[in-house]
Amino acid sequence: MGTPKEIFLKDYKMPDYYFDTVDLKFLLGEEKTIVNSKITVFPRVEGSKFPLVLNGDDVKLISIKVNNEDLKEDDYVLDSRHLTILSPPTGSFTLEIVNEICPQNNTSLEGLYKSSGNFCTQCEAEGFRKITFYQDRPDIMAKYTCRIEADKSLYPVLLSNGNLIEQGDLEGGKHYALWEDPFKKPSYLFALVAGKLASRDDSFVTRSGRKISLKIWTPAEDVPKTEHAMYSLKAAMKWDEDVFGLEYDLDLFNVVAVPDFNMGAMENKSLNIFNSKLVLASPETASDGDYAAILGVIGHEYFHNWTGNRVTCRDWFQLSLKEGLTVFRDQEFSSDMGSRAVKRIADVSRLRNYQFPQDSGPMAHPVRPHSYIKMDNFYTVTVYEKGAEVVRMYKTLLGSQGFREGMDLYFKRHDGQAVTCEDFYAAMRDANDADFANFLLWYSQAGTPQVKVTSSYNSDGRTFTLKFRQEVPPTPGQAVKEPMFIPVALGLLDSSGNNLGLSSIYHDGVLQSISDNDQPVYSTVLRLTKKEEEFVFTNIPERPVPSLLRGYSAPVRMETDLSDDDLFFLLAYDSDEFNRWEAGQVLARKLMLQLVSDHQHNKTLVLNSKFVEGLRSILTDSSLDKEFIAKAITLPGEGEIMDMMEVADPDAVHAVRTFIRKQLANALKAEFLAAVENNRSSAAYVFNHPELARRALKNTALAYLALLEDAETANLVLNEYKNASNMTDQFAALVAIAQKPGETRDTILADFYAKWQHDYLVVNKWLALQAMSDIPGNIENVKNLLNHKAFDLRNPNKVYSLIGGFCGSTVNFHAKDGSGYEFLGEVVMQLDKINPQVASRMVSAFSRWKRYDEHRQNLAKAQLEKILSANGLSENVFEIASKSLA
Ligand code: ARG
Ligand code: ZN
Predict the structure, then answer these.
(1) Domain 562-740 falls in which CATH fold?
(2) Which of 385, 516, 684, 813 could serve as a FRET partner for 806 with CA atoms 20 to 30 Å apart?
(3) Mutate to test the pocket of ligand 1, among 262, 266, 305 (most ligand atoms within 8 A of CB)
(4) In terms of CATH, what superfamily is 7-196?
């Protein structure tokens, strides 16, 4: 393999040819599949003469015809990745290609492959070229038909995009189905499924009165577990009508669940294909977290029908155009279905724990990347989650109404088109006549902006001043950055904790009114656009405590000069629930960093009693939402703390977090016990906010109690495990028990496996729990699990549970003897031969190696070098490994 080629956004060129219609025929066989593709082609510029270059990967050409005539050998060139037709006819023509593929041997799970005996597809980003030769790029949008022929007894169900227009029996025990999709689509949205499947059937009546048939397909025995997915789908369809006025556009919507899938799910037009983990749930086998994930992802894929399918991306650099927007939409959907504040807290935690580290590491890239080697490597937390934050900022700046007007204009302008992030920006701007300053920098500059705030109060002038200073750190390929446009939502609290009325601000020496019809406002949004900037609030009667960046109004790291007292005050009184949680987190982060330093200097660790009291009052405040309490009493993750250190120290961070948790368990034992007693599930499991909030609080308390050494709590935790009537409670108790090495842990883990060995999704939880464990020397256990009959390197979910889980364990993955790194290095090389996308996700665990001490750096670097020198390395792993070393 030569050095893989890097592709650049700046090199984007419009295609020379477009495709109008695509008629596909599949003969699905046990050894091989024959694909016949008939395409009508027309030139972009009438009369132009260019070669037509088609992509193809692992496809065997059988024949090729242009305008019904076989092409001669020297009319085309075939290399390992392309089929080039040297001089096609001038004007429109038809192209007919027959090729052979081998889905049975396709372990990459990209293109057409087999999962548990069924055929299925995954074409995004560039998988369609593994099915047939095609201009495999999203700006080629065509109308498809798809005829599938297969053995009737092995593959009774035959599905593709759009409407079923014909089906029937054929000779030799075969049958066929013909599907037609009336909407133009890019090839990445093509899908085919064939197999033994049963469906849960339901329907949805749209607001214009059309009845849509809904089907969720799984193996027959799993159909009972699709009730929640169906509920989620109908809720999503209703929500998109209510909030965005968007209605479904076909008469049929299919969802298929498959056990072998690289990612979460895929929004193929009217035939969504899902990782079964995001479809199947029952109270006995799935936790509240699984139920919430299913709701969010069913929503996400459904919402793509408008944001992604009807309006798609011009090129893959624009991925966030559909993903950032659709994540934002699914976040809002989940907020409306549950608690807005808690959902925001969960999303911001995710951003901090995963996206911030990416944005400050060697794989840092802008929301719209400038280049890639393998697009699959850019389905990242930056493109998705930071992209969603960028969309959220439009809404913060424009308000709900203005944002909706921007969306309406976006669809009005671009329905049926493949467009760019600028097109979205322009629609938001033009619909509102808005001044967005240099907002577009959010798409092109990588790195998390750092914002420092200082405040001062002038009692004579009754003014309150906030000074902001922003800095965007350098990232690979971007040494110097420009200041960004940062919306800062805020309010000012008076001494009794109420929001002060705000009426005017001096900004750059100019007095601006911020009142609303002469009435003061109680919160406002400042627009930072410069490196340094000052805002002076007038008519402020006393020194206020500012509540800054309310609702996390911009994806930045903010550092303030607030004292601990100010933070405790915000924790107790802020009207913005998100910022109440945030104040507690700022305090916890400060405390943890201080204790980490004490630990490193061999000082005795002492926990600040004010912190304990702050948490006690949250824990006992009956006016608060219980899920909010659960979040507020949870310490920032170890990754988040390591990310804030000069040199990340896994052992010290783990020791300190454990120390604080044990101290809290002791000090708040009575409160935790009460939280458990008062929040047990009473009746049958229901997934709704009040019920899941009770479980969240009870189980968070239980995890603290399980750290105590007395027999009474040990018994309590054990009984919670034994008496649990749903997976949420049962697994939470198991997690609590598994924190402590010993006989109980071993017995209960074995008991759990014995109970659930028939259910692969539950077994995956069991694998992950053990893999993530921080108990000393756990690597041996993980190595044994690699050979356990429940494990299979070919199944991505199992890899993510066991290998991914292990990489998340602070102390064992980063073990000083290098055993964790060596283990991952070995696995990545084996995995790369089976499934490069999955291998590439696993190798990413090394990408932050420079953040650790020199000893660890050398160990991790050696593994990366070894991987890079392997024969036949995939482009996927090459890109991550080489960029990590650069
Ligand atoms: N578009 C899918 C989603 O809903 C993800 C596809 C991921 N594909 C990949 N090759 N990484 O987010
Ligand atoms: Zn998506």
Answers:
(1) Zincin-like fold (1.25.50)
(2) 385
(3) 266
(4) tricorn interacting facor f3 domain (2.60.40.1730)
